[in-house]
What does this fold into?
Amino acid sequence: MGQMKFTAVQGGSIITPKGFSAGGLHCGLKKSERHDLGAIYCEVPAVAAAVYTTNLIQAAPLKVTRESLQDGRLQAVVVNSGNANACTGKQGEEDAYTMRAEAARHLGVAEQDVAVASTGVIGELLKMDCVTAGIAGLPKRLSGEASGAEDFSQAILTTDLVKKEACVSVRVNGKDVTIAGAAKGSGMIHPNMATMLAFMTTDAAIEADALQQLLRQATDVTFNMITVDGDTSTNDMLIAMASGLAGNDALHPAHPDWEAFAEGFTYVCQILAQAIARDGEGATKLVEVQVSGAVSDLSARAIAKTVIGSSLVKSAVFGADANWGRVIAAVGRAGEPVNPETVDIHIGDISVLEGSRPVAFDEDAALQYLKGDTVRITVDLHQGDGIATAWGCDLTYDYVRINAAYRT
It folds into this structure.
């Protein structure tokens, strides 16, 4: 991104922007004692926007959240893990509406100002006695301190091994504006318009249409550029809330500080997206694929995602095998314009293909590089100015083990 127009906030979290608090607790949806219910609360109705999975089978909470967001405002989000509330019919819809109503009642906000999100096992009804009792206990768990953010981050995890957070500060109209995010995602990650579950907060004043536009644009180059296993979930959702309490003039694309704000916002999305890819189920490495020289950015995105999603490429990275043949094969099957005589490929800084011809390289050096925890593959097509970057992870034995026993 060149010279950054924002500053990373060390230790920042979803509650760092002015006006927000969060919390979480264990209500009994998970077999373990890990938190499984959480909420984000804003002290004022916030400008809000969202993007959702494009899977045609969509979980009940998405219907409820879409309805709540019709006026572009939210004041709270209630989230459960351990149960997706997907493929649960009319009862599932009623349960999602009950979650919204109970959260609104206990938080003292309008039902229409509450979003609902769920993640976990598909096809099982929620234990609503546990959920409603848990929601009743959430208000006293909400906090604007680090503990509240920690509890919320833990409450949204399923097979994730680590929480995922990011926070930056941007100067807008001479005032400090903060942008933060929290996400979960480890498996069933191949998003289109969203990722598993992600939540962003900011204290910026921003026009609703501008926030929705920015959210889509940022998603396209971050969350939509990751894959773990090629599966798009029924529950993918990304929600952004802006309290407006920073005191700046309302942001819009013509605002003099729009570029800086958009850059910081996109950076938070990117950090969260990379964290999801790095924490892929069973993963040992983060894999980054950079494509340049494509006929367009859209073409570069399609090629980068094809390479990062290739099971053969992912397996080769796991085995520390510099098998560039799998990379160029993925490039060629992406359905995008490629000149078969002009492709260059690097693994890290090691050139393995120039002009689509093999290059003698140090196999031991490649082996040592591929044993690292971050692997970068670059592809230059020499056809145009299109560029894109995608992120994923290696494919390991543990991925099969984890998913073979997901319900049991």
Summary: The chain has a mean pLDDT of 91. The CA atoms of residues 31 and 379 lie 45 Å apart. The radius of gyration is 22 Å.
